[in-house]
Amino acid sequence: MNRYDRQQVLQQVGKCGQTKISNAKVLVVGAGGLGSPALQYLCGAGVGTLVVVDPDVVEMTNLHRQPIYNESLVGLAKVDAAKIVLEKLNPEVEVLTYATTLHPDNSRLLVSNADVVLDCADSYAVSYMLSDVCSLLGKPLISASVLGLKGYVGGFCSSAPSFRAVFPEIPNNTATCATMGVLGPVVAMIGVLQAQMTLGTLLHLSPSPLGQMVTADLDTYSFSSFRFDNAEEPKSVTFHFISTSSLTSKDLIIDLRGENEAPNPVHPDALRMSVDAFCDGNFIPESGQRVVLACRTGLRAWNAARNLRNYWDGEVALMAMASLEVR
């Protein structure tokens, strides 16, 4: 029996649709709780090439919500472990792996070679970086996030508004899955929805997954869905993320991390400051300077930039160091 017989029988798929799926290249950024189910179902569906990007290794704490892995794979790079599992699941699928983070220096090349991009990193910095590159290159972006018992997934860019159009500001929330917790089935549901929206995008289903947002609250078992086709793009990009290679001698570089958090600053000339230093308007950069604000995730840098923007209209760039470290 043909491997894809049960999906080819759908009139939305058929042999023509299966050919589209088999010829597609999908970039999946993040092989964790969201990426785990998304990769498995896209592989099962027969997506021709899966490109997996993740810098982490498999840990015991991953296993409750990332069932693509098992205890025998603990300690391996996630991309290598995922490749082992996916090639056994479907040998017809080519799996390309990059054990690195997504950052401004590699994002454009990775995105340019993909038909659809999945944001499974659950990182604000990565979401905005991917949105900016996908908007520039006209690539569809399926982005999702989960925290606690709640999550969302949406189809952005290409024929739809960008992530910035829907989320012009980073939510002022420092909670993470490590601090707030998360249940495996919640990320699995959202990750599977990412896979479904990816297939719908490849098959050009109507209504399009692009411009569609689905939210889930598994605390109350409630779901909602809405379209954002008419969301207005920001008139200008509020703040963009850069990498260390983009720094220049003229930049005013500020590291918002404490010495206990980061003994070595982002740059030898970087100043050590806190977000509070930008609240009272006393710190004013020189005219024509570009201010570069660095922190671990990008959240403190965004908040400091927002405070600085209240009284200074010069150029500001952000650095999320967790998205630049190759591990």
Automatic annotation (TrEMBL):
Annotated signal peptide: none
InterPro entries attached to this UniProt entry: Rhodanese-like_dom_sf, ThiF/MoeB/HesA, ThiF_NAD_FAD-bd, Ubiquitin-activating_enz
GO cellular component, one term: cytoplasm
Domain of life the protein comes from: Bacteria
Domain THIF-type NAD/FAD binding fold: residue ranges: 4-230
MF terms (GO), sorted A to Z: nucleotidyltransferase activity; thiosulfate-cyanide sulfurtransferase activity; ubiquitin-like modifier activating enzyme activity
PANTHER family linked to this entry: ADENYLYLTRANSFERASE AND SULFURTRANSFERASE MOCS3 (PTHR10953:SF102), UBIQUITIN-ACTIVATING ENZYME E1 (PTHR10953)
UniProt similarity note: Belongs to the HesA/MoeB/ThiF family.
Protein's name in the database: HesA/MoeB/ThiF family protein
Lineage of the organism: Bacteria, Pseudomonadati, Pseudomonadota, Gammaproteobacteria, Enterobacterales
